[in-house]
Design brief:
Blueprint: E1 6-9, E2 16-19, E3 27-31, E4 48-50, E5 54-55, E6 62-68, E7 74-78
Antiparallel strand pairs: 1-2, 2-3, 3-4, 4-6, 5-6, 6-7
């Protein structure tokens, strides 16, 4: 199933970003490399991108959003404690 976000990729430098809704700002995503970049759902190699970690208001924990560009599966990953 296609993702509902709009996705952007620079063919020159490989930058990837998404826009969750029309008129919203682009969110930069980082490409994950090696085993971390392989999708745990479909197995596509180095197909996963992740958002910058953000703090959850309710628990204070940190998560980042992972998306496989091959199969479209996404999930929140607990990113562990951060300083600052």
């Amino acid at each position: 199933m296609p993702r509902s976000e709009l996705w952007w990729e620079c063919s020159g430098c490989g930058w990837v970003g998404c826009q969750r809704g029309e008129g919203e700002r682009l969110v930069a995503m980082r490409r994950l490399e090696g085993d971390e970049g392989d999708c745990p759902f479909c197995g596509a190699e180095e197909s996963t991108v992740a958002s910058a970690p953000r703090r959850l208001e309710d628990t204070g924990g940190w998560v980042d959003w992972w998306v496989c560009l091959a199969c479209g599966t996404s999930h929140l990953r607990h990113a562990g404690p951060r300083s600052g």
